Structure formats: structure tokens, C-alpha cells
Amino acid sequence: MKILFIGGTGTISMAITKLLAKQGHEVILLNRGGRSNELPDGVRVIKCDISDEADAAEKLKGMSFDCVGEFIGFVPEQVERDFRLFSGRTKQYIYISSASAYQKPLSDCVITESTPLSNPHWQYSRDKIACEEYLMKQYRENGFPVTIVRPSHTYDERSVPLGVHGDKGSWQVVKRIMEGKPVIIHGDGTTLWTITHNSDFAVAYAGLIGNIHAIGQAFHITSDESVTWNQIYSIIADELGVELKVCHVSSEWLNAVGPYDFEGTLIGDKSSTVIFDNSKIKRAVPWFTAKVRADQGIRDTVRYILAHKECRTDDEEFDRWCDKVVSAMEQAKKTMQ
């Protein structure tokens, strides 16, 4: 099949790009050219900033596709542009939404695709909902062949999946664990969370391409395994061979003290216990089963980061903030004694 990805080199999409190329599909990426050196042979890149719609239209002139995958559409204006560019030119359009769009607070921790979409805590999620609504409207009224995919916390070898970190990623938290410093875990660390390795996600996504049961449908793709945040951080420390020192702090307090905005990422997402029912994606893609267990994936990621300096970005500002939070919590304990 002839497949066009808008993006195609991110955490989720790179794994899909590599898998589809291995399967023998014609894969074309429309992006600015980042990470092109990591692409497998045969994958073609059309260098373009798709926000320049006229330029994109010119570079795609005369082309049609079996599937177009949108990985970098975050607001309705972007999917409206896609509709203009690809209506009548693709047999399927797969939009990456987000599982954070599901109802918060949850009325039931077991999430299916029929769980209501509503997140008052995170604009990112509300924008994804708006994108979904626009695309489904185009499906109902104009037959636009949309499939919606909602990932949850999907990770690759370059970043350890964590709850509380700074703007420069997860490395500083890993570094604090290595140095024996307390790390911040939101809440009491016992809420359940689901992390999914991108290699597993890719298998399910690829199975939706050209799938007659996927048009006009929404699917989430996650692992069936749930782990606590305490377990996630403990796995990291165990792989590093050090003792884990933890400072548990409520998500509401972390968001209130600033300067980091945790309302969306914690209160509207990671502080909730979530268990995903993957029955629907397994009916559509019967061979899909997430194979990378959480502890295995986390250990592999820690090893990769330690072996690749480019994945280690220090964040001194976040480190100082962590020290201040830990000190404040210790002072509060002393005050109450």
C-alpha cells in the first residue's frame, strides 16, 4: 500500500514507519526532515512544513494514497486543512488523538471507546476532542474515511516514562535517583497507570491500515498491563542498583506551587487510575497483543539512555525546584510535630 505520514519520526510514528517499511509498504513522510538519518531504506521524505498549505498542496499535486496518517494535528484548524488537502485523495485517514480526552474525573476506571470525552483540566485534550468531532462530522456528512486512534502513555527507548518531570524530559529524575536524591511522585504513588512501548503500538496501528472495520471508528491502543507509579520508579532504581528515595506530594499541591503547570498532565491525566479495555482493537486486529512488559521496557530504556549521551539533558532548574519541594514537605512535617 501507498502510505503518507504527516510527521512520521516521533516517538509513536517512528516505530510505525519502520514496521511498515519492513512489511514492504511504500511509505512517504511529509515533514521538515528531522531524524531522517534514522529512517530505513526505501522510506521517502517530502521536506515540507505542512502549515504552509499552499506549498504542501503543490508538493502533493497529483498524488493519492491508500492511507494518510496524521501525527502532528493538535487543533481543529490543522485537521480542517487536512480535509482540504486529502478529501477524495485517500482511502483512509488515521488521526492520532489522545486517551487523555477521556472523561476526567472518571466515573469508571475501566475505559472503553464509549467512555465520554471530557477533560476540563487540559486544553490539549479539549483540542483533541474538537479535532475528533470535526473529523467525525466530515465522515458522517461527506464520507471522509477517518479512523481515530487514542494512544495513552506511549514511550520509546529515548525517554523513561515518568509522572513528574521538568521541561527537558525525564533524565534529571533518573539522575536524581542515581545520586541518591529524593524524587517526587504525585499522590501516594498507588494509582494505576498504563504505559505502552511504541513497538507494540505500531503493530496495532499497522493492523488498522486498510482495515474495513476501522473506517468511521475510534480505537485506543494500549498495553493490558497496569502498574503503580511507585512500581515504575522502583523499577528504575532497581535497574540503577540504588535505593529509591521518594517524596510523595499531592498533584493539586504540585500544581498550586508552580512554576510548572501540572493541571493537565497530572490532575487531568496521570493522577487518575486508568485501566484500558482493549477488546475493540483486538477484534479489529486479532493478532495484536502488547508484548513488552513494563519492567522490561523501563529497564531497556534506562540502559539505552545511559549508553547514549544525546538522550541525557540536564535540567538544573527542575533539580532546584525538586529540592525546594522536598524541603518544604520536610518543614511541614516538623511544624506538625
Biggest sheet, in brief? 7 strands, parallel
**What low-confidence regions span 5 or more consecutive residues with pLDDT below 50?**
none
The first-to-last residue Cα distance is 68 Å
Summarize the helix and strand pattern as letters: EHEEHEHEEHEEHEEEHEEHEHHEHHH
Helix content: 40-55%
The CATH superfamily of the largest domain appears as: NAD(P)-binding Rossmann-like Domain
The CATH topology of the largest domain turns out to be Rossmann fold
What structural class do the secondary elements suggest?
Answer: alpha/beta
Radius of gyration: 21 Å
Which CATH first-tier class of the largest domain would you pick? Alpha Beta
In CATH terms, what is the architecture of the largest domain? 3-Layer(aba) Sandwich
- Mean pLDDT rating: 96
Number of helices: 12
Strand order of the largest sheet: 3-2-1-4-5-7-12
Q: What does the overall shape look like? A: globular
Number of domains: 2
Number of distinct beta strands: 15
**Share of β-strand residues:** 15-25%
